[in-house]
Amino acid sequence: MNIQVICIDDAHRPNEVPTSRWVKKGEMYNIIQIDKLLMQGGEYGCKLQEIDNDDLAPYQYFRLARFAPPQTNEAEEAVVETMDLRELEEVLEEQL
Questions:
Q1: Which pLDDT score is estimated for 46?
Q2: Which sequence spans correspond to the domains of the chain?
């Protein structure tokens, strides 16, 4: 698994986790593992390629809610490319 995401929440770092091993809002990361964390009420957590916290039990995972898919121009361009512009033109003509 390798899913590229952007950090949207870096608040509430546990004191036991050094700042050098904590996520930073606005930075890109790659998720390599996702698990359901039963000790955290079934919340989902993830491990990142860029930060190895396996030796920081119980802080090996980051809350999955801290991340979101990146919004890029490339993603928007892919959507536009798949649109059939003729269909769009027909709809616009009908509205006129």
A1: 96
A2: 3-70
